[in-house]
Structures are given as structure tokens and as C-alpha cells.
Model the fold of this input.
Amino acid sequence: DTAVSQTPKYLVTQMGNDKSIKCEQNLGHDTMYWYKQDSKKFLKIMFSYNNKELIINETVPNRFSPKSPDKAHLNLHINSLELGDSAVYFCASRISLGASEYNEQFFGPGTRLTVL
Amino acid sequence: AQKITQTQPGMFVQEKEAVTLDCTYDTSDPSYGLFWYKQPSSGEMIFLIYQGSYDQQNATEGRYSLNFQKARKSANLVISASQLGDSAMYFCAMREALNTGNQFYFGTGTSLTVIP
Done:
């Protein structure tokens, strides 16, 4: 009954490869996010999707592309992986309806990406 | 300016003692929410406590309480009766009601170590 799930949990790959990380939430939330957490534990927001529309795209290289086939899924596709992409990637979701500033984000378990 | 500032990179506390983790924020939005998350060494992000900008009383959740000082724009987390399992990274975050991008702003985190 995992609320927000991510696959895979660990991903080790070579520079230049293309990879995807999947995220699914079963909470009925309408907004999903991708965060990158670097080795210093700093959390950087990458994308936010609300009702299948991209809302935020912070200064993220266009090698990263979010794909949302439906409200319950937000996958992250990364092209031409670089060493600096090594990090933990978190998916999160929340409900944005109503008093939206009051609703917390629920995080997935994270995907540790290592680029060799 | 940073939206969320956590000035304590690392903190130590004796088991069973109370500890305060600092968080200051910057916003001109009259309506906002403040959140604290815990990230243990296992990596998951766990929601702890929420404080709304219009809440008259400080939020409490078990051993966690939030010392909300609106005029000072601070939202410090107080953990009472510290336990060894409280050793973790703690992140303060803010969401502004007028932020149409649904964005959460996170601080850089405080690493708490509970000493037996």
C-alpha cells in the first residue's frame, strides 16, 4: 500500500546512457514533483506537474524530461547521462485543491542514481 | 534572498534532552504554510509537522512542536525528550498560497545527532 513509489531504488549506469525513473502515487493527488538531492543533501526542485501540465521547470538541462501519462504517474527520463547527474532523485505528490498551502507533500523513497 | 534559511548545519543533543532546530523564512505572501520534514539515514523524507500563517497557536505533534514567531519570520522545530532514533537530517520548507507553481521551498537542512 505504498503511497508514492519509485522504481528503481538504485540505478548505476555509464556516462552517455539514457535512463528513466518511474513514479506512481495512489493517493489521488493532482500534483507531482521531481526533486534532486545532491551529496550535500540540498534538495532542488526540478519539475512540478499539475493535472498533467508542467508548471515548474527550474533551470534544469533539457536532457531531463518529465513524462506524465496520467495523474497518478510522473516519470523522469534522462538523456546522455553525465557524472554530475549522480544524486538521489525524489518523486513527491500532493493535493493542490482547496486551501493548497496547507497540504504537505508525500515523498517517494528516492532513487539513487550513480553515473560512472 | 533565500526563501528558507537553516543556519545550523549540524546539532548535537543528549538523549532525553530537548533541542531546537532553527528556521527562518522570507515571504511577502500573507498566506503560507511551513513544514518540517525528517530524513533519516535510510533516505526517506518523513513529514513531521505543519504550521499555517494564520494559525493562532503553535503546532504540536507528539514530541514535535513548532515555535512560530510570525513577526520574526521564524518557525523553529522543538523536539522534546530526544531519542536515538531522532538522529537525522531535518528540513524546513514553505509553500506560499499565491504561488501558482505549487512550489515548495526547502532549506539546506540541519543534521541532528542524538548522543546516548
User: Anything to note?
Assistant: The radius of gyration of chain A is 14 Å. The interface with chain B takes residues 31, 33, 40-43, 45, 48, 50, 55-56, 88, 90, 92, 94, 96, 99-107, 109-110, 112 of chain A (CB under 8 Å).
